[in-house]
């Protein structure tokens, strides 16, 4: 006995001695003793748990009950450990026994072969030795019995053979002739006979022969042909010259010399069976389980019929021999002194079925009595008589002609009685007691499958009838609720009646198949009434909730059909969600197309603050419409939300955001609309808010609902954020830059060829003033939530980059650009003034580019020598340009407030 410490108990399963286990609870504070837990009593066949618990805990305190529960748990754990130990211990012995069984099986078939050879030798010796007449006659009878050819020829030559028999015989001969023409080598191994016929044609079914030492290796593909006296195994071989396939005989066995044994599926092979023919064993495998079962069933049915025919023929031969060897004396026939009992005994022995005269008489008169009972509908008594008759017929040691006749009469009455009982069972108004009584009669008659089928078919008819009585008044949810109540209540009643009538556990699979059929029918009606009408998701959710509510009572009987119904309807639910999502996408596209990209008026939001509480930025109307679509879709889907619909719901939401940003991007880059700086700025604000603010909120709500992260939305957010950045930093910058360089500051076309002098009161040119004005307007149009300074800095960088391009310093004819004495100084003044006005937007790259522009301008001026004229004065110095810029800045400081605000110190 093992010691497990305090609070544990030791248990030695399998010991013959009676032991008691006392467990001390670890929570006990005193050393009080309790009633010991008697483990041995649990193994008693008459053990009753309720009585034992009542006796143990009749006057126990709560602590004692808890301790008793702990003892039971410890006993269960110890028993589980010992059971596992015994399994490991006996595993080796189990393997050895399995090998011995396999070896014994082979020895048995070897013994059968030896017995067959011994029998044949004995018959040959009897034939050669010409023993006494009785033995010779018996041998002749045996030969006639085992010769199918003699029996068949006798049947064909009898006058009773009619036209149908002749037609069937002709058909068999034609099939056999075609078989001999198809299979090459068959006529040499098995010469044709007129009595042989084809049982099963295997040309259309292919099997694989497997190597017994390596079950994964296929030796060849074969076909099985079952004849009346032989089993053929053929293969297909392709001719080298003709290239055509032909059927070649591979093996030919006598039906009586082979046995076919099913092989259970394993990890190595499936759908396999063994063909045993002493002393060889062959293993074959079929393509499907149905093919294997069909072949094995056909072979077993034919061999059983053949065995019964042989046994009946042998019994008849023995009875004839006994009658011929022991004739009744003439005085026995004539003498009245011979008792009836003796004559009955001799008749019983002559018949060879061990039935007494009274039994035979009772069985003979049983048919009339059953007819009377059936006519009076006294089915209970009739069933009892049939059971008694079957017991008497089971005592018969041989299937003699009179036994076969009486058995046929009984079975005929049984079928008729079962038909009448089945009709009562199908009565739709029968009570539970009547239904169970009729099922019990069919079970006593040995027709359990028929009883089950009739009962379930009748219940199906009742359910269909009740379904037709449910009225549809226009409200789909109410109709589905009433329909579910009818269907699932009848399924529950059927389950209760079925469990009380069919106690055999093998009948459970048939009932579950019926339940699945009724669920499929309910799902079809649900699909037709709900999904085909394309209602809102809220209506679908209400219908599903009603159906699930009426499914709950079935859980009392172990039927958890709610998940099955949900799984059946899931494709339709996903389709409905997809249709709703498609409508939402169209609403989002329409909202983007109709938006004028102006900020929503605060007056429009009055009274709607709670409704749009999640929108914390100033955006256009399309964002509010997108938010409304999301809220409506989420409200409809929330009642349907489950982990099975996770992928579909998340996909729809990602499509909503992707569609909005994609359409917004297409609208943003369209130049035909002539969007202003302000409108494009609103677009950027909308896209940024949707991606950076709205998407995380939706993802958070989904994460709380599904209790998991939403990586799909996070990945989509990263892609959409990249699009928004591209729209802001690439598309917007390029559009603004191109517009400025074309309409405002078209540097290659500005005339700087003036060769006159420049005044000390010179000011920046009109072109540079317009450029600064446009930048100031752009700065004021963009929302403060956008990186305005970065956007303007990029635009200025690209303007100076374009000014340094070679195209800006050549004429359309390809000649160098001309700059005059006045023009080059005006250009330098413009650049100085521009750099001073947008000082906060100047990067190092822009500063270098501006210096390079001034350098190019001076180099161009000196190279061309101002168009060939003589320079009469010196160029202005840097101080002059600074003084002019300072003077102009003082005059126009209030004209560009947005740009100057960038230069003001923070705070």
Radius of gyration: 51 Å
Second-tier CATH architecture of the largest domain: Roll
CATH class of the largest domain: Mainly Beta
Query: Given the structure, what is the number of helices?
Result: 28
> What is the arithmetic mean of pLDDT?
79
Low-confidence stretches: 1-32, 131-161, 328-340, 866-870
Determine the CATH topology of the largest domain.
PH-domain like
**What's the CATH H-level superfamily name of the largest domain?**
Pleckstrin-homology domain (PH domain)/Phosphotyrosine-binding domain (PTB)
Strand content: 5-15%
Largest sheet: 9 strands, mixed
End-to-end gap: 87 Å
Quantity of strands, as a count? 9
Summarize the structure.
The protein is an alpha+beta fold and 907 residues long. It has helices at residues 49-56, 62-129, 133-146, 148-157, 163-182, 186-189, 289-325, 330-334, 340-351, 357-375, 379-394, 401-425, 432-444, 448-469, 476-501, 508-529, 537-551, 562-594, 621-638, 646-669, 677-706, 711-744, 766-781, 788-803, 821-837, 844-868, 878-891, 897-903; strands at residues 183-184, 198-200, 207-211, 214-227, 230-238, 245-254, 259-263, 272-277, 280-286. The protein folds into five domains: 1-130, no CATH class; 155-321, Roll (PH-domain like), CATH 2.30.29; 437-560, no CATH class; 575-712; 745-903, no CATH class.
